[in-house]
C-alpha cells in the first residue's frame, strides 16, 4: 500500500456513533480542540482502523505497520513546515506501552516542535481508540529528526517554529536538549565501553552457563527488492517501510531463540546512514545479541546494493523483545552463548546499551517527581542527568500559573504552589550584557560574594565545558545546628537561537567520591537556577528559580510571604556583584580545587 493511500481521515478527529452520555468526556475534549483558537500549522493527524491485513498471528497490529504510519505522518508534518521534501534522519527511543487489536482505531498526531537550519524535530503521539467502549489510551510517544531536501541547488534555511501554547513552549525549549543528546549518542556508547568499572562488570558476567543457547541459531538474513509501492514521493525507499522490514526479521530472530511469539517493547534511538532507491536490493540481517532474564536485545542491520556495487549501510537498530505467558507476564528467557570475536563484541555492547537504555528511560522519561533527587552520577549517565537538570528548569520556568507575591524597587517575587510543591521566582532587569551575566552567574565558586547562604562553594569535578559538580556548604538555620552541604550538578547552556535564554540549571546528584559525612547534614536541591534573557544589547532580564525542598524551605520561609529585607538584599547584592564585574572580559574557566 502506498504511503499516500494509507492516510485515512487526515486532519479529522474520529467520533464514535455511541450515545452522547456514554461519550461525554471524549466529546467534550474534541469540542475543546475544535473550538480552540490555535492549532499548530505543522500538525498532521492520521486515523487508521486496524484490519486483519495489518495484524500479526495474535490479531494485534504489527509494530512494523505502526512504524510505517508513524513515519508517514511525521514526514507529512515536516514537509508542511518546510515546504519541500524531507527525509527521516533519526528516531529517538520508542517504548510501546500497549498493543492494538484488530477493529480498534489508531490515532497518530505529529507536529514540528523546533527547526534547526535544515533539520527539525517532529513530535509523534500515538493513541488507540476502542469504537465500542469509547475508551482512549496512549500507545507510545516518539521524537524524530527530519532533514529538508530541496530539489534545487539553493541552501535550505528553515523558518523558525513560533510556539503559541504552554505545551508548545515546553517542547520547543526541550527540543534543543534532545538534539544535543542525538549528536553525542555514539560517543556515550564508546565512553561507557572504555570505562574500566564497566569493563570489570562485563568480565564478571561473561560466564556462560552449560545450557546457554548459541546465538547462531537466531541469525536471520532476508532480501527485499525495492519496488515503486515501497518508495515515497521522492522515489527513495520509504523510511517507515525499511523500519517495518527490520522489525520483521528482528521478530523472526527473537522467535527462534524462545520458540514462541515475542512482543516488541522498545526500539533504541537509531539513525539513517544513507538513502535507498527503487531498484535497490535491501539485505536485512538480524541476530539476538543478549538476553536479560525477561527480555532480549535483537540487533538488526539494513544494507542496500544495486547491480554489482558494494553493500551500502542504510540503518542499524536494536530492539527489545519480551515473551509473555498466558497471564501476560514476561517469561524468563534462556541465556545465550555468543560467537567469538564479533558475537562477543555484540554481547558486550548489548550490556552497555541496556545500561544506557535504563538510564535514559529512568532519568529522562520519568516525571520530575518520580526521579530521586540525588541520582548517582557517573560517566555513563552524565548526559541524561544534564538533560534532566536543564529540562526541569525549563519546565519550571514555562509554568503559566505564577502569582506575583510582591515587588520592591523592580525586584519581583513570584510563587506557584501545586502538588504539594512550592516554587518561587525572583526577577529583575539591569544594565549588563546577557552573555556577561551568564558568565558571572555560571561560576558558583564566586556565589559567596553575593549570597550569604553560600559559606563555601568548591568545584569537585569539571564534567565538560558546560557541566560542573560543586560542593556547597550553607550555615545552619537553627542556632548551634550542623552546617548543611549539597552536591550540585551545574549545567549551563547558551542560547540555541535568537530569543532563547541563557540557562544555568542546578540539581542535586550523588557523587561516590563524596558521600555524606558526620561534619555536615546532607541536603538536596530539587530544581534551581537562572534564566537570562537579552532585552537589548546592554540590558538583561535575570530570573532565579527554585523548587523548594525541605532543606531549602527554612531559608526562605520568612521571605516567601513577601519580599523581606533579607531576601531583597541578596538579590540587590547579586545586582551589585554583576555591576562590579561588568567590565572584566575574563572567561569562565574554573579549576578543581
UniProtKB/TrEMBL annotation:
InterPro entries: Cytosol_ACT, HOTDOG_ACOT, HotDog_dom_sf, START-like_dom_sf, START_lipid-bd_dom, Thioestr_dom. Its EC number is 3.1.2.2. It is found in: Cytoplasm; Mitochondrion matrix. The keyword Repeat applies. Keywords: Cytoplasm, Fatty acid metabolism, Hydrolase, Lipid metabolism, Mitochondrion, Phosphoprotein, Repeat, Serine esterase, Transit peptide. Residues 402-561 form the START domain. It is an enzyme of class 3 (hydrolase). It catalyses: hexadecanoyl-CoA + H2O = hexadecanoate + CoA + H(+); tetradecanoyl-CoA + H2O = tetradecanoate + CoA + H(+); butanoyl-CoA + H2O = butanoate + CoA + H(+); dodecanoyl-CoA + H2O = dodecanoate + CoA + H(+). One of its GO terms (biological process) is acyl-CoA metabolic process. It comes from the Eukaryota. GO terms for molecular function: carboxylic ester hydrolase activity; lipid binding; long-chain fatty acyl-CoA hydrolase activity. Pathway: Lipid metabolism; fatty acid metabolism. GO terms for cellular component: cytosol; mitochondrial matrix. Has an acyl-CoA thioesterase activity with a preference for the long chain fatty acyl-CoA thioesters hexadecanoyl-CoA/palmitoyl-CoA and tetradecanoyl-CoA/myristoyl-CoA which are the main substrates in the mitochondrial beta-oxidation pathway. PANTHER family: ACYL COENZYME A THIOESTER HYDROLASE, ACYL-COENZYME A THIOESTERASE 11. This is Acyl-coenzyme A thioesterase 11. The lineage of its organism: Eukaryota, Metazoa, Chordata, Craniata, Vertebrata.
